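ESCALATION

Customer reports they have been waiting on this structure for their group meeting. Please prioritize. Original submission:
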Amino acid sequence: MKNAAPSSLLTPLSLFRNGFAWVMGGLSFTLTLVALLPLLAILAAIIQRGLPTLSWEVFIHLPAPVGIEGEPNGFANAIVGTLTMVGLGALFSVPLGVMTGVFLAEFAAGSAIANGVRFVTVILSSVPSVIVGVFAYGVLVITTKQFSAYAGGLALGVIMTPIIALTTEEALKLVPIQYRLGSAALGGSKWETTVKTVIPCAIPAITTGVLLAVARAAGETAPLMFTALFSQFWQEGLMAPTPSLPVLIYNYASSPFEEQNAIAWTASLVLLMLVLIINLFSRLLIRRRF
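Update from on-call: job pushed to the front of the queue and completed.
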C-alpha cells in the first residue's frame, strides 16, 4: 500500500504567504547590494585612479626621485620584496601548518591535547597583525640589530600558520571515512593511511588554504613596518631592509607629492590583482571533488 502524501503538501500556498516570501526575498537582495556598495566603491576608486599610470614600466623600474621628469617610475623592488618575504614565510608556515592540521584531524582528534592546540591556533589566528609585527621585531630585529627580509618573513609566516592549520584540519575531515577503513582493511597502518590515502585526497582543499594564507600575508602592512622597514632600492640581501608593496602604498599614499600618490594607487591596483588571481586560483582548485 502506497503512503499518501499529506493533503497540506498538495495545497498551494496562500496569496499572503507567496507575497511575504517575495517581499523577504526582495529585501534580502536589496540589503545584499547595500552591503556590497562599500566594496564596489573601493574597487571602482582603485581602478579609476590606478589604471591611468599602470604600464609595463612600473614592473621593471625602481621608484623615481621626486621632482625629476622623464625618469621611469616603478616599484619592481617592492614586488620582488613582497614575493621574497611571502616565500620566506611560506617556507616554515606551510609544513608547520599542514602538520598541525594533520595532528588535529588524524592523530589526536577529540583528545584534550588536540582541543588545547586548536584553541591556541584559533587565538593565534585572531591576533592583530601589528602584534605579530612587534613579536617578530623583538625576536629578530632586536637580536640581529637589523631590519631584514628574514624578520618580515617570520612575521608573515606567523600570520599564515594558523590559517593553514585550521583549513588543513577541515580539509582532512571532509575525506570520507570509507577511505580510511579501506586502507586499514588492506593492512595499512595509521601513518600509511594518512600519508598515502587521506592527505592525497585532501590536497586540493589544503592547497586552497595555503593560497588563501598567502593572499592574506601579501596584503599585510603593519608587521612589515616593524620588521622589514622599506627601501627605495633593490634589496641588498635577506639581512637588509626590504621594500614591499603594502608599505610602499602606505608611504606614498601619505606623501605630499602627487606623483607618489599616483604610484600608490597603481601599486594598490597591482596588489589587488595579485590577491584576486590567488583567490581565483584557489576557487578553481576547490572545485575538485574527492
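Sent to customer with the following note: DSSP finds eleven helices and no strands in the chain.
Escalation resolved.
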